[in-house]
Amino acid sequence: xxxxxxxxADIPSGLTSEEALPSQDCRxxxxxxxxxxxxLQADSAAPDGANLFVVDPWSHxxxxxxxxxEIIGCDVPVAGETLRLNLAATAGDVTLADIxxxxxxxxxxxxxxxVERAVAEKYNIPCGRxxxxxxxxxxxxxxxxxxxxxxxxxxxxxxxxxxxxxxxxLLAARRIMEHRPPKLSFDESGxxxxxxxxxxxxxxxxxxxxxxxxxxxxxxxxxxxPVACRQHFIHGSAAGCMxxxxxxxxxxxxxxxxxxxxxxxxxxxxxxxxxxxxxLMAAWCDVNAERGLRTWPAxxxxxxxxxxxxxxxxxxxxxxxxxx
Length: 324
Known about the structure:
With about 325 residues, this protein is an alpha+beta fold.
């Protein structure tokens, strides 16, 4: 299981109903002062009227628009330098799902810089297109924010594609429910016991359930993949990724964006941090549909997101031992 913080949500059976979905308008984004190409991806571009959005410093129209919003600084220490990022928010409201595009962009910027530094320091990163070892070995946790965003994306897809993805989720969920995972225990900070994580990973390998979004050794939702997947890089041997040797370790990240999103949702909802197993997210969304419709001021969400990223980055930088 990919490491995550917070309790594992209770998952009943069922699939999400289309009526219960939050809006799929992208309402999040970031301003980059130094790495435009890493951050401004078409998949996360905000439409007109979005309340949290990407401000492209190279776009005159967006520079004008940015004058009417609040800019929240989000400087992140990464690989010995400061990655200068900013969140832009209007006076409107956002749902939990609306926070996800900005979180993805922050995640991609931080991850890209960390991987670049690791490669420069001669770390061997075997991860690449066509490698699906981790997709077959790890049970990926998603946050409440991502569960709503991803489930909405599935239901908004073309009918045939949507049905295909829902069927794969259902089959994977059924397999998991037939072979209940080991119970996880958490410490006071919400961290999961390492021994429990190891036991869960072994259990998941034994029940032989690949990621339901895996198609021909490629991710079918790559641009919208969970942040846990976006940050899962290995250094060492590709054989180690497949379990044939011990010569593979996870590349440390200064910020675990899954933890950040979990903390942001918990603060907004005044609730516990929770993680939802990816194959079970549709059923979870169905039961928690009202939470997906709830809104908060975009400025508040941006402030909490920026503050949580900064705090997590400072803690992560102190703890990291692999990439400096």
